[in-house]
Design a protein that fits this description.
Layout lengths: L13 H28 L3 H14 L11 E3 L2 E3 L6 H17 L6 E5 L4 E6 H4 L9 H16 L3 E7 L13 H18 L7 E5 L18 H7 L1 E7 L5
Parallel strand pairs: 5-6
Antiparallel strand pairs: 1-2, 3-4, 4-7, 5-7
Length: 241
């Protein structure tokens, strides 16, 4: 047999194997992407609900196996798909994430069982010891305010502080400071068309820290204290009439 007819076995690994694996991974991801788009675009409600279940599971919302009853806050619900409330919450989270883009220095968006939580970082939104919104804060809030104002969603604005006492003429304690900061965010939304009937303001002071303010020995943890200085927007789905 001529040497010209001998087929050489491709080298294992190396450049040839590398690009082939990369291409295969890319094609797999593209296939999954288009399958997801197709499933969502299909008017078949059962397919839509199945996709919704999968998305909700990925976001941490409990979804029971097919045929089993769903439970929410300990109460059984005779539905196997994600409730309309959960679906509305998930859609709102996606919309908020789309509007604010990559503003990771300013805020964090998470989904809770009953609401979307937008955590506004205190150091970005307010000068130290004050309750006046910074220019950056107004820029970020300006991205989400129009959508919230034209929606039917309800908002609770929570103001949180660290455990360091503040004693000033304007703010005798962290209660006044946290309330004033939450009120400043609420006023911004109201000035841009949000209904006063769908918003509440709470000043929490240091009663609900997201992270421990001190370690086991009682020593302050400055990084955690900084993260605890925040305002949280809790966005709830519209109430059924």
């Amino acid at each position: 047999m001529s040497d010209d007819l001998i087929l050489k076995k491709p080298a294992q690994g190396g450049d040839e194997g590398g690009w082939a694996l990369t291409l295969a991974d890319m094609m797999t991801l593209l296939l999954c992407f288009f399958v997801l788009l197709l499933a969502i675009a299909d008017v078949d409600q059962s397919k839509y609900k199945d996709v919704s279940d999968s998305l909700a599971s990925a976001m941490g919302v409990p979804v029971p196996p097919k045929g089993e009853a769903e439970t929410f806050e300990g109460a059984p619900v005779a539905r196997r798909v994600v409730s309309e409330k959960h679906r509305n919450i998930f859609e709102m989270q996606l919309e908020m994430a789309r509007l604010v883009g990559r503003e990771t220095d300013a805020l964090k968006i998470t989904m809770r069982p009953d609401s979307v939580a937008i955590v506004l970082k205190g150091g970005f939104f307010f000068p130290s010891g004050k309750a006046d919104l910074t220019k950056g804060a107004m820029r970020v809030l300006g991205k989400i305010a129009p959508t919230l104002a034209t929606s039917l969603y309800y908002v609770v604005v929570e103001g949180h502080s660290d455990n360091i006492p503040i004693r000033s003429k304007q703010f005798p304690s962290n209660w006044e400071l946290s309330s004033a900061r939450a009120s400043a965010v609420a006023r911004y939304l109201l000035d841009r068309g949000f209904s006063k009937d769908r918003i509440k303001v709470l000043g929490m002071a240091d009663t609900a820290p997201a992270y421990p303010n001190v370690d086991e020995t009682g020593k302050a943890i400055p990084a955690n204290q900084k993260r605890n200085r925040r305002v949280v927007l809790l966005i709830y789905p519209p109430k059924k009439k």
